[in-house]
């Protein structure tokens, strides 16, 4: 068997006495969707932040494509093909949707120390950005200010930006949070299509989406992985049912 | 610094609108000398030259403050560096404006690279304060320089020549040279803010986290902008020294830095045109009020407090509210 | 040499204490309200002028000093009500604009009321003498009294902050602003209290310094910038930090001006040493500040700034 694309080894992080990540280890194979589920406050976002380079773990290693990236910053990881989307939408509000995505294209293509030519006239940037917007179904919003988009559109834009970095591994932090029923269905379709191109680590509360997309599911409770395996195995695990699924079964 | 972003974001009027407004300003400025001549009020040319000198300085500050969200409280240091470059070089017998400009920009680039690299390690209030500290350092350095007049400053023998020609010797020559530099600085910065570099800088203002998640490390871009702004401000310093035929550490006091921020906030940050208009209005107000009463600072201060309390976004905020300038879609 | 050193050390401490009195209120305003107040130095100046005015009217030092406190407190309250209160949730830039305007207004008002010429305030007779220091050196009683008063104020501030409910709110606010906001109704009164008390302390400092230095319209400017240095070195929002940094800045500044040229003379010829000393001495505190921020971007006692 080949080496995993992402290998997390004994990752730990605490804030004072609060252990937010405890000895987490997991492997993500190329071409798979690995979902991480768990109740609120389980430390899912903290874990993603350590994988993306926003937070430094206290101990443990993150190995990506055979390279130890534990000490690499977020920008460096993005350039290696490890992109993320944020749970709390993080866009450039006064930029248009197109400009948001074009900037991500610009980050990997050519120098940004160019001072005179207006970036808006660079057809190559705009074309690639439009393609990413089309991927997420946001073409008709290309020239709207990001700050004026609806919540669901912002989630789509967030994803288009991540795609524009040409990721090999995509870290998705609750990409469906706050989207309407229809938008969510669209996004799930999109992820299903992306599966051929991109490996994904998915944090999501929407269990239908998780079980539709994931090849592997890990359950995180109080910063620890309590179960890991195929969706059906995890669903059947009694420990998981009491720790997590039981709560989630109650309608929101 | 979300609070800053919130104030900055609305101040992004339509591109065409702010360009048109800037062209109007240039056109009006261009007819000031003949107008002053016709009215027999030659001091108007001198006042307008000062207004434009500070417009150049305010434009340079807008690049880092308005576009880069780096609130520098020590920007007057570069005004002083430019002015002292003229004083030092002319003392050494180098009287040409081009050489003086180059020297001023080189000195500013060195100072900005060193102090910018240290300052950018800090954020928020700390950044404001550390830039202030570096500004004060430069101030006290020149205050203690007794060979250059120390606290009192030093008068220049004459204005600089331009490639050997005495272009700056009379008031209209000085005026049009300054106007030419102002137009050049505005045009350059306008292009720069739309360029790839400008996008990265503006993006960092809006969300540094988002930029990192796109694969950018903000520091080199912020530092480059900081250096460019310093160099451009020293151009204003060179012209200020020539206009006044006098150089003093007062050019780089913290009051000047504060005043430059006031010009920006008054005109509206992050639109270039706002910075320019703010500088013109500020100097015009100061000169106009000073003619009315020796206690003009009282009125000027009250105006500033009033604008801060009742007109967020400064002049451009006011224009937008009455519908003269529109937001970008 | 040692005597001279001791003398300058005391002078430095006295200057530091003064800086602390001005900085204590301002660091809380910075830390809790995230408010840039350029007008704080002007309150120090107002304290000096009120003192000079009251001395002119009553001729009694103690009575005048007692009057300065309520009057500068009142000035602080009025400014808070009219201006600052409306600016708490605005950007730093709007705050700079408004408080820069206030500096101009208040300085000009002072010029209109009392003129530009420096005023002097007579020292009370009880404190006019000097006491023997080491050997033949003597030290003015008044300066010792300033140091003592400052230490007493610092102690009582420490008591308020460490032992009272208001102090608890202040500490929580400096550490985490959201926490104080969560406490609801108290917040406006807390802000007002901090502001007014800060104004009073600055005014008090301006009043007690008036017999040593003269009272003039520019006195607020110099102290304001040094106060910023103190606050940033100590860490924004930390009164303890402000105390340590104020003494540090006071002593470094005073000793640097005195001993800088002497030390430099051992390394270069006297003329060059004199010039270099004159150049470096006033820059010393700013170099100190840049160095501190280089190693600790949030100051000595500041909480780490999230990047």
From TrEMBL, chain A:
<dbReference type="Pfam" id="PF00005">
    <property type="entry name" value="ABC_tran"/>
</dbReference>
<keyword id="KW-0067">ATP-binding</keyword>
<dbReference type="InterPro" id="IPR003439">
    <property type="entry name" value="ABC_transporter-like_ATP-bd"/>
</dbReference>
<dbReference type="GO" id="GO:0016887">
    <property type="term" value="F:ATP hydrolysis activity"/>
</dbReference>
<protein>
    <submittedName>
        <fullName>ATP-binding cassette domain-containing protein</fullName>
    </submittedName>
</protein>
<dbReference type="Pfam" id="PF12399">
    <property type="entry name" value="BCA_ABC_TP_C"/>
</dbReference>
<dbReference type="GO" id="GO:0005886">
    <property type="term" value="C:plasma membrane"/>
</dbReference>
<dbReference type="InterPro" id="IPR027417">
    <property type="entry name" value="P-loop_NTPase"/>
</dbReference>
<feature type="domain" description="ABC transporter">
    <location>
        <begin position="6"/>
        <end position="247"/>
    </location>
</feature>
<dbReference type="InterPro" id="IPR032823">
    <property type="entry name" value="BCA_ABC_TP_C"/>
</dbReference>
<dbReference type="InterPro" id="IPR051120">
    <property type="entry name" value="ABC_AA/LPS_Transport"/>
</dbReference>
<keyword id="KW-0547">Nucleotide-binding</keyword>
<keyword id="KW-0813">Transport</keyword>
<dbReference type="GO" id="GO:0005524">
    <property type="term" value="F:ATP binding"/>
</dbReference>
<dbReference type="InterPro" id="IPR003593">
    <property type="entry name" value="AAA+_ATPase"/>
</dbReference>
Automatic annotation (TrEMBL), chain B:
<dbReference type="InterPro" id="IPR043428">
    <property type="entry name" value="LivM-like"/>
</dbReference>
<feature type="transmembrane region" description="Helical">
    <location>
        <begin position="48"/>
        <end position="69"/>
    </location>
</feature>
<feature type="transmembrane region" description="Helical">
    <location>
        <begin position="219"/>
        <end position="241"/>
    </location>
</feature>
<keyword id="KW-1003">Cell membrane</keyword>
<dbReference type="InterPro" id="IPR001851">
    <property type="entry name" value="ABC_transp_permease"/>
</dbReference>
<feature type="transmembrane region" description="Helical">
    <location>
        <begin position="76"/>
        <end position="94"/>
    </location>
</feature>
<keyword id="KW-0812">Transmembrane</keyword>
<dbReference type="Pfam" id="PF02653">
    <property type="entry name" value="BPD_transp_2"/>
</dbReference>
<keyword id="KW-1133">Transmembrane helix</keyword>
<dbReference type="GO" id="GO:0005886">
    <property type="term" value="C:plasma membrane"/>
</dbReference>
<feature type="transmembrane region" description="Helical">
    <location>
        <begin position="261"/>
        <end position="285"/>
    </location>
</feature>
<feature type="transmembrane region" description="Helical">
    <location>
        <begin position="173"/>
        <end position="192"/>
    </location>
</feature>
<feature type="transmembrane region" description="Helical">
    <location>
        <begin position="100"/>
        <end position="118"/>
    </location>
</feature>
<keyword id="KW-0472">Membrane</keyword>
<feature type="transmembrane region" description="Helical">
    <location>
        <begin position="125"/>
        <end position="145"/>
    </location>
</feature>
From TrEMBL, chain C:
<keyword id="KW-0813">Transport</keyword>
<feature type="transmembrane region" description="Helical">
    <location>
        <begin position="96"/>
        <end position="114"/>
    </location>
</feature>
<keyword id="KW-1133">Transmembrane helix</keyword>
<keyword id="KW-0472">Membrane</keyword>
<dbReference type="GO" id="GO:0022857">
    <property type="term" value="F:transmembrane transporter activity"/>
</dbReference>
<dbReference type="GO" id="GO:0006865">
    <property type="term" value="P:amino acid transport"/>
</dbReference>
<feature type="transmembrane region" description="Helical">
    <location>
        <begin position="190"/>
        <end position="213"/>
    </location>
</feature>
<dbReference type="Pfam" id="PF02653">
    <property type="entry name" value="BPD_transp_2"/>
</dbReference>
<feature type="transmembrane region" description="Helical">
    <location>
        <begin position="12"/>
        <end position="31"/>
    </location>
</feature>
<feature type="transmembrane region" description="Helical">
    <location>
        <begin position="141"/>
        <end position="161"/>
    </location>
</feature>
<keyword id="KW-0029">Amino-acid transport</keyword>
<comment type="similarity">
    <text>Belongs to the binding-protein-dependent transport system permease family. LivHM subfamily.</text>
</comment>
<feature type="transmembrane region" description="Helical">
    <location>
        <begin position="38"/>
        <end position="55"/>
    </location>
</feature>
<protein>
    <submittedName>
        <fullName>Branched-chain amino acid ABC transporter permease</fullName>
    </submittedName>
</protein>
<keyword id="KW-0812">Transmembrane</keyword>
């Amino acid at each position: 068997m080949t080496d995993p694309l992402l290998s997390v080894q004994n990752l730990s992080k605490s804030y004072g006495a609060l252990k937010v990540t405890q000895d987490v280890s997991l492997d993500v194979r190329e071409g798979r969707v690995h979902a991480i589920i768990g109740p609120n406050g389980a430390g899912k976002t903290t874990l993603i932040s350590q994988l993306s380079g926003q937070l430094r773990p206290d101990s443990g290693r993150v190995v990506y494509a055979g390279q130890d990236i534990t000490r690499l910053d977020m920008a460096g990881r993005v350039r290696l093909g490890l992109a993320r989307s944020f749970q709390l939408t993080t866009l450039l509000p006064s930029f248009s949707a197109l400009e948001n995505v074009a900037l991500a294209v610009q980050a990997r293509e050519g120098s940004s120390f160019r001072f005179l030519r207006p970036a808006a006239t660079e057809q190559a940037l705009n074309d690639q950005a439009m393609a990413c917007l089309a991927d997420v179904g946001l073409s008709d919003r290309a020239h709207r200010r990001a700050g004026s988009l609806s919540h669901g559109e912002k989630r789509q834009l967030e994803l288009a930006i991540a795609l524009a970095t040409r990721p090999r591994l995509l870290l998705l932090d609750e990409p469906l949070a706050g989207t309407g029923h229809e938008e969510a269905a669209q996004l799930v379709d999109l992820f299903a299509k992306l599966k051929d191109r991109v490996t994904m680590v998915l944090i999501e509360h929407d269990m239908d989406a998780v079980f539709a997309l994931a090849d592997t599911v890990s359950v995180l409770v109080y910063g620890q992985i309590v179960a890991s395996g195929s969706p059906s195995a995890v669903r059947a695990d009694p420990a998981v049912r009491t720790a997590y699924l039981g709560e989630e079964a109650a309608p929101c | 610094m979300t609070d800053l972003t919130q104030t900055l974001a609305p101040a992004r009027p339509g591109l065409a609108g702010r360009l048109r407004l800037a062209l109007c300003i240039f056109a009006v400025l261009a007819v000031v000398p003949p107008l002053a001549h016709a009215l027999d009020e030659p001091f108007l040319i001198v006042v307008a030259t000062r207004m434009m000198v500070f417009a150049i300085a305010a434009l340079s500050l807008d690049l880092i403050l308005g576009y880069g969200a780096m609130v520098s409280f020590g920007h007057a240091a570069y005004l002083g560096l430019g002015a002292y470059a003229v004083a030092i070089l002319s003392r050494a017998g180098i009287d040409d404006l081009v050489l003086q400009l180059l020297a001023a920009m080189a000195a500013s680039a060195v100072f900005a690279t060193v102090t910018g690299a240290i300052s950018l390690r800090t954020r928020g209030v700390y950044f404001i304060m550390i830039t202030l500290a570096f500004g004060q350092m430069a101030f006290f350095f020149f205050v203690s320089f007794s060979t250059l007049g120390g606290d009192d400053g030093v008068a220049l023998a004459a204005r600089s020549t331009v490639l050997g020609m005495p272009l700056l010797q009379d008031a209209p020559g000085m005026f049009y040279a300054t106007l030419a530099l102002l137009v050049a600085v505005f045009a350059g910065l306008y292009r720069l803010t739309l360029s790839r570099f400008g996008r990265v800088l503006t993006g960092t203002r809006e969300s540094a986290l988002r930029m990192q998640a796109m694969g950018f490390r903000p520091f080199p871009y912020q530092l480059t902008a900081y250096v460019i702004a310093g160099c451009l401000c020293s151009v204003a310093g060179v012209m200020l020294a020539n206009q006044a035929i006098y150089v003093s550490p007062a050019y780089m006091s913290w009051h000047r830095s504060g005043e430059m921020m006031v010009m920006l906030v008054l005109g509206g940050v992050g639109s270039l045109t706002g910075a320019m208009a703010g500088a013109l209005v500020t100097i015009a107000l100061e000169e106009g009020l000073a003619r009315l009463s020796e206690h003009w600072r009282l009125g000027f201060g009250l105006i500033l407090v009033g604008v801060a309390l009742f007109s967020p976004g400064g002049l451009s905020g006011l224009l937008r509210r009455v519908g003269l300038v529109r937001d970008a879609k | 040499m040692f005597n001279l050193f001791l003398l300058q050390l005391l002078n430095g401490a006295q200057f530091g204490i003064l800086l602390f009195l001005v900085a204590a209120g301002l660091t809380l305003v910075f830390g809790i309200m995230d408010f840039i107040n350029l007008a704080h130095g002007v309150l120090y100046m107002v304290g000096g002028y009120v003192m000079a005015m009251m001395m002119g009217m009553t001729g009694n030092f103690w009575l005048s000093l007692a009057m300065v406190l309520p009057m500068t407190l009142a000035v602080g309250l009025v400014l808070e009500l009219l201006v600052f209160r409306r600016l708490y949730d605005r950007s730093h830039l709007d705050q700079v604009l408004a408080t820069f305007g206030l500096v101009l207004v208040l300085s000009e008002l002072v010029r209109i009321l009392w003129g530009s010429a420096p005023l002097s305030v007579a020292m009370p007779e009880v404190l006019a003498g000097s006491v023997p220091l080491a050997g033949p050196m003597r030290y003015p009683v008044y300066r010792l009294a300033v140091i003592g008063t400052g230490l007493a104020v610092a102690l009582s501030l420490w008591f308020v902050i460490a032992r009272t409910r208001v102090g608890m709110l202040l500490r929580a606010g400096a550490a985490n602003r959201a926490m104080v906001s969560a406490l609801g109704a108290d917040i406006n009164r807390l802000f007002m209290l901090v502001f007014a008390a800060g104004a009073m302390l600055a005014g008090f400092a301006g009043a007690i310094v008036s017999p040593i230095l003269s009272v003039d319209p520019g006195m607020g400017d110099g102290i304001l910038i040094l106060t910023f240095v103190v606050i940033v070195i100590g860490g924004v929002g930390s009164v303890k930090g402000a105390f340590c940094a104020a003494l540090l800045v006071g002593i470094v500044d005073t000793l640097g001006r005195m001993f800088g040229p002497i030390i430099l003379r051992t390394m270069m010829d006297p003329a060059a040493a004199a010039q270099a000393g004159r150049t470096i001495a006033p820059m010393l505190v700013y170099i100190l500040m840049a160095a501190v921020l280089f190693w600790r971007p949030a100051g000595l006692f500041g909480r780490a700034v999230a990047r």
